[in-house]
């Protein structure tokens, strides 16, 4: 059967994608009247809209993973016209289990996606530590509280959570796949953005939600060393499920800073990780062959599931990442804001990134403030507003 989806999305998206690349900047902003059908909805942003003579504020969000689409949802609800650009050709389905609890659970509830998340739950029932011969050492049931247990009551694959949020927003948000920002001109009346595909468009606000290794961030925050490397690497793989696999997150600590884990998913496969400490920086910049060689050497003497995972390395989907944190002196500069891992990544080991990405502390308020009083958010170190993009990252 022919897949009619564009970028892995539903057919309705196609028109929007062609719309932007075919006629850059040609789309007329929707007014609040058109959007609501009945006139302007009252709400916290109503005074801002009045101040702008009823013009709908526009935002470009760069990055269609978790933080970007989640912000689009909240801004749509406040009457903004939202565009999301993603450098990949479609939604990225990779990634492992994300727990949904605490503030993240509350945000999911308020976004009306809690049931969809529950329907896509991985079904993981707890965490079990095992020795090299697969003997259980300790077992912890899934935690029902906000912080209890490595496994939460509600777990979902990162890619599926991203798709749920994009599906929730795609009727109102314009999604553009396979493009990226190459230059930004942040002026008093808007940010003029040049895209790699050649389009030039102006937005009231630009939000960079490109993850820890964001390149657009360095166009705005010059000379800022945003990423603090933690000397820790994680390889994420999807491997076939066998009869010996369980619904537990099984975890083997192999010594010398190495661990192997297996987790169930809801797709009939198993999510495996190989994690290790290393003082060597830049291993994540190697090609797949180099990464596979490093993993095979590092885990050659490790027992339990390590041989099975290493054997799968030849053709299993693989995502390899250097673990780091983002620390920024400011999250806004003029009309440009950082969001999610690009702004305040706490690293996957903290288990907090996806939660904070959805929660987007203060960004919605920042967008409103930046739109009306852009200069008030500008940090002192900011230099010339027009910047060219750094070379593309491998990720
Ligand atoms: C493929 C993938 C797999 C992941 N797997 C896991 C996992 O297993 N466990 C875990 O804890 N966390 C994982 N993460 C990270 C996790 O999604 C984030 O920590 C968290 O959800 C915060 O999300 P974010 O939206 O801020 O950033 P991210 O999830 O990192 O998403 C950033 C998005 O921006 C896009 N992007 C990057 N540069 C540009 C650009 N120049 N222009 C346009 N778009 C750009 C990326 O392609 C990506 O879609 C993964 C992220 C990705 C992208």
What is the CATH domain class of the largest domain? Alpha Beta
Count of domains: 2
The CA-CA distance between the termini, in Å, is 31 Å
**Any ligands, ions or cofactors bound here, and which?**
flavin-adenine dinucleotide
CATH superfamily of the largest domain: FAD/NAD(P)-binding domain
> What is the overall silhouette?
globular
Largest sheet: 7 strands, mixed
Helix content: 25-40%
Helix/strand/pairing class, anyone? alpha/beta
Strand order of the largest sheet: 5-4-13-14-15-12-16
Based on the coordinates given, report the CATH architecture of the largest domain: 3-Layer(bba) Sandwich
Relative strand content:
25-35%
The radius of gyration is 22 Å
Q: What is the residue-mean pLDDT, rounded to a whole number?
A: 80
Number of helices: 13
Question: What name does CATH use for the topology of the largest domain?
Answer: FAD/NAD(P)-binding domain
Per DSSP E runs of 2 or more residues, the count of β-strands stands at 19
Low-confidence stretches: 1-47, 367-395
Q: What does this entry look like structurally?
A:
With 395 residues, the chain is of the alpha/beta class. The chain has 2 domains: 13-93 and 161-226 and 327-388, FAD/NAD(P)-binding domain (3-Layer(bba) Sandwich); 229-324, D-Amino Acid Oxidase, Chain A, domain 2, CATH 3.30.9. The chain is 26% helix and 27% strand. Helix 4 packs parallel to helix 7, helix 4 (67-77) runs parallel beside helix 12 and helix 5 (103-111) crosses helix 12. Strand 8 and strand 9 form a beta hairpin. The two termini are 31 Å apart. It is built from 13 helices and 19 strands. The strands form 4 sheets. A 7-stranded mixed sheet has the order 5-4-13-14-15-12-16. The model is unreliable at 1-47 and 367-395 (pLDDT under 50).
């Amino acid at each position: 059967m022919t897949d009619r989806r564009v970028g892995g999305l539903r057919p309705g998206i196609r028109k929007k994608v062609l719309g932007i690349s075919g006629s850059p900047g040609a789309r007329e902003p929707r007014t609040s009247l058109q959007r609501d059908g009945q006139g302007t909805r009252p709400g916290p942003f109503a005074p801002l809209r009045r101040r702008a003579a009823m013009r709908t504020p526009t935002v470009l969000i760069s990055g269609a993973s978790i933080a970007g689409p989640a912000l689009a949802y909240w801004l749509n609800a406040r009457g903004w016209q939202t565009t999301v650009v993603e450098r990949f050709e479609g939604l990225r389905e990779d990634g492992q289990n994300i727990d949904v609890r605490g503030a993240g659970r509350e945000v999911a509830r308020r976004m009306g996606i809690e049931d969809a998340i529950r329907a896509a739950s991985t079904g993981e029932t707890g965490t079990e530590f095992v020795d090299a011969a697969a003997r259980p050492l300790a077992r912890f049931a899934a935690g029902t509280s906000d912080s209890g247990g490595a496994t939460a009551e509600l777990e979902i694959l990162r890619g599926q959570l991203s798709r749920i949020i994009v599906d929730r927003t795609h009727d109102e948000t314009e999604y553009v796949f396979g493009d990226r920002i190459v230059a930004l001109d942040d002026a008093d009346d808007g940010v003029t953005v040049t895209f790699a595909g050649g389009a030039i468009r102006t937005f009231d606000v630009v939000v960079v939600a490109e993850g820890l290794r964001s390149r657009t961030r360095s166009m705005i925050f010059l000379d800022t060393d945003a990423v603090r490397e933690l000397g820790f690497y994680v390889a994420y793989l999807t491997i076939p499920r066998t009869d010996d696999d369980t619904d537990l997150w099984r975890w083997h600590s192999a010594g010398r800073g190495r661990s192997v884990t297996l987790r169930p998913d809801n797709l009939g496969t198993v999510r495996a990780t190989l994690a290790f400490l290393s003082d060597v920086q830049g291993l994540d910049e190697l090609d797949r062959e180099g990464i596979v060689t490093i993993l095979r050497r590092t885990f050659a003497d490790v027992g339990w599931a390590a041989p099975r995972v290493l054997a799968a390395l030849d053709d299993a989907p693989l995502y390899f990442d250097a673990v780091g944190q983002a620390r920024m002196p400011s999250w806004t500069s003029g009309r440009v804001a950082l969001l999610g891992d690009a702004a305040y990544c706490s690293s996957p080991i903290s288990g907090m990134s996806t939660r904070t990405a959805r929660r987007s502390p203060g960004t919605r308020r920042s967008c409103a403030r930046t739109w009306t009083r852009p200069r008030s958010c500008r940090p002192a170190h900011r230099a010339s507003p027009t910047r060219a993009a750094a070379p593309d990252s491998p990720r």
